[in-house]
Amino acid sequence: MAPEVDAADELSTTTCPLDCPDACKLVVTVKNDQVVKIDGADDEAHTGGYICGKVRKYADHVYSDLRLQTPLLRSGAKGSGQFSPVSWDEAYAKIVDRIRFDRDRYGAESILPLCYGGSNGKLTQDALDARFFFRLGASRLDRTVCAAPSGAAYQALYGKMLGVSCMDYDDSAMIVVWGNNPHASGVHQVPHIQNAQQQGSKVVVIDPRKTPLASRADLHLPIYPGTDLVVALAMIRWLHQHGFSDGDFIQQHTSGFDQLLDRADEWTVSRAASVARVPESSLEQLFRLYGESDPAVIRCGWGPERNRNGGSATAAILAIPAVANKFKRSGGFTMSNSGAWKLNQASVIQATPPPTRRINMNLIGETLLRANDPPVSTLFVYNCNPVATLPEQNKVIDGLQRESLFTIVFDQVMTDTAMYADIILPATTFLEHNDLRNGYGNTRMGQVMPVIGKIGQSKTNHEVFAELIDRLDLSEPGDLIDVTELSEALLGETMHAQLSQTGELAAAAGPRPVQMKDVFPATPSGKIELFPASLAESSKAGLYRYIADASSSNEYPLALISPALRETVNSSLGYLIDKPAVATMHPTDAGARGIVDGQTVRVFNASGEVFVGIEVGDSVAPGVICLPKGLWMRHTQNNRTSNALAPDTLSDIGAGACFNDTRVEVATTPLNLS
Asked: What is the three-class DSSP state of 154?
């Protein structure tokens, strides 16, 4: 734990790189090279000087008892947690010897990097790490566990045109929050939504859960998981039929409207309401409110993408403001503003992607268990905790226990995945290294600066991968290693000089761009592509074609969702939660199964089972059970999480994860698992 604050403390400024839209500017109080307080910077307009509780308490993570401080070599069985300290030189030698052995025996494709840098910046992922694996010729990882379907849809329709700033929500007449819980995963949106509501704006929340925002919304639509597509298509059909589509705007600024309308035409309000399990009147209320409100904004979260219809669902949601022309004023949509930055990542990588096989990270369990040609023989895990985050958790664990697999885990703490490693390397936190981080909601880029010395023998990503490049004779003349050189190459001389002076950069479009006035579609046609050929060709069932819920059955009739909470947007800090996990189900479903509040229940399907306490309440819709995202194995009574129940099926577009397609049954259990 961090020490107490006193008057002699020093203040340092840095940027938060954690998985969030905002890239908050932070003020860190340090005494005797220890963090004593973390707060928001008062001069940051977007964040208003306040930060989320996760980052405010981040020192608990920096000084955690589970913090790794030296390289470790496995000394017991995989998963036993038995390790012995070794020097960095010994660790490097073990890794290099194994990689050379596997490269000679099976070829470099037998080596697989497993990473997902949601909480990393531009210098700690897809930099020297990519240089190392590209030059090595390793298998390539498709990082599709999050945002792949949405990203594909966003890119195809708008070319990642910038969306609405959350500061413009104050002036909206209507706000639709669709599959997003900003109290957990974008807290700086909340006051703007509340301000708008106080001024008379109508707020609609579309979510199977009664989130804090849904509890205070003018309308809450608890649609059944996986049905976002049909609701969006029914909305498009209704808006057009009732005179709320803008023919002139559609003609001038879009393409593919007739094809979109053809796909929407089969989704009447009645049919969509039946599939989504909500009243027709509620859908019509949403549609009319949106059609009549100006300006109106849709905040599309990541929830709609996490099912078999995810790509088409997100595309249909993003098409709505174009159909009704909610642009040219402070309305439209918000999703990700990562497109604000055009960075030269290739100049940092300095290597060409090899023509090697691609492996989808959602299929890691299946991949590690399958007799591939070549098999994955060395797995290098960094910026990622796959046991806690990937679907089919039991397959992932079984794969990691394979004796012929050599697993390297490079992390900050002893994660659930690290327990199965052969070599563990200690990593720095963002308070101990340099990085660059841009927001994907806030259009700000900030420097991540070390405010304390490295804990123990921890090292930065670029230190470790630079050393491995050198030891495996993969260095080339002109390689950039120094973080200052890497930053300048990434940004260019002018922006780098500005960043060095001010510590931050603002996007060229400004903090509050207006769509179709200040910013425009970056598609090949320059128009909003409502029926993009790229999505039509890649979609499994055809773009905007609803795929029915084939997994729902009498055997597993409940939909399991695993949303983010304030403490667990991802798994990174989940271990700091002391309380056991609790699942939530509706009183109707509990009563039908003889389940009462506070019992231990068995949540199960063909993939696995989770023993967990139950809370009975109306915060989830009937037919839905909720078990939070980001849990670690220690949080349940049988050391399994919702990921043990999640299928490794893939979304229609983007090959994304289908967590919300998990179907389960719940039963009481007399077992004493203590």
From this structure: helix
Q: What are phi and psi of 603, to 5 degrees?
A: -100, 125
Whether the pTM exceeds 0.70: the reply is yes
Q: Assign domain 72-138+342-430+447-506 to its CATH architecture.
A: 3-Layer(aba) Sandwich (3.40)
pLDDT in tens, 440-498: 888 888 999 999 999 999 999 999 999 999 999 999 999 999 999 999 999 998 898 88
* Cβ 459 vs Cβ 427: under 8 Å: yes
What letter would DSSP give residue 483? H
For the chain, give the number of residues: 674
Q: How far is CA 562 from CA 446, 569, 608, 620, 641, in A?
A: 31, 10, 16, 12, 10
The CATH number assigned to the domain with range 149-338+513-538 reads: 3.40.228.10
Query: Does domain 558-668 correspond to CATH entry 2.40.10.270?
Result: no
**What are the beta bridge partners of residue 232?**
none
Which one-letter DSSP state was computed for residue 633? G
Q: Exposed (0-12), middle (13-18) or buried (19+): which is 76, by Cβ within 10 Å?
A: exposed
Q: What is the DSSP string of 556-577?
A: S-EEEE----SS-SSSTTGGG-
What residue segments make up the domains of the chain, in order of their start?
A: 10-62, 72-138+342-430+447-506, 149-338+513-538, 558-668
Helix (H, G, I), strand (E, B) or coil at 528: strand
Closest by CA position to 380, among listed 662, 149, 114, 107:
114
HSE at residue 514, side-chain half, CA atoms within 13 A, is 11
pLDDT digits (tens, 9 = 90+) for 296-322: 999 999 999 999 999 999 999 999 999
Tokens at residue 395, please? 């397959």
CATH architecture of 10-62: 2-Layer Sandwich (3.30)
